[in-house]
Here is the input.
Amino acid sequence: MLLLMIDEHLVALVRLAIEERIFPGCVLGVIDSGGQDVRAFGNPTYESGSGVAERSIYDVASLTKTIVTATLLHLLIDEGRCGEVDPEIRTM
Here is the structure.
């Protein structure tokens, strides 16, 4: 089994983003059938010095929910499990 690992270039990009205040911290993970590589970076907020943990929980913003929902809907359409025009889908 091939174990996917987080690339060190990606780690460098995350650290640079934190340094440039794009976000205060994050948890980055790759999980496959061979195992997992999960790493925590930065702090929960710019004011907090407590540090992010690998098991930190983040609030999912409304924009994130719509992106995930649209992506999953398109996957269902591609798989033929949902039609583009179903009776349950109504437009105003």
Observations:
- The chain has a mean pLDDT of 82.
- The longest helix spans residues 62-78.
- The chain is about 30% helix and 15% strand.
- The beta strands are 25-32, 35-42.
